[in-house]
Design a protein that fits this description.
- This protein is of the alpha/beta class and 126 residues long.
- The protein has a single domain, classed as Response regulator (Rossmann fold).
- It is globular and about 35 Å long.
Length: 126
Amino acid sequence: MGKARILVMDDEEIIQDVLSSMLDFLGYEAEVASDGEKAVAMYRSSLESQKPFDALIMDLTIHGGMGGKEAIKELVKIDPNVKAIVSSGYSTDPAVTNFREYGFKAVISKPFKIEELGDILKQVIG
């Protein structure tokens, strides 16, 4: 069995790079999408190619594009068992405080440590 594949959705390149490095360090294979439209397309394509992502880490707010709240609605239609983690610096947003109601499996608040990321992924992926 290969490395677990994680799709990172964030509009900030520095966060994409740091998160990809953290995931690589933890033994995961990371791919990135800069907005929800790209994330949904990549997720759909991964299912069709029989190489699905094991989990997604999605930023709630994407400037000028589809954010996590909108993207999760589409992802749940494609795969009701999608393992998406909402990532945000806004802890009061309803999608963070009531993440399960939106279709997310877990939440990780920015900024986070690599240990927290590892723990959340183990919890979500199993």
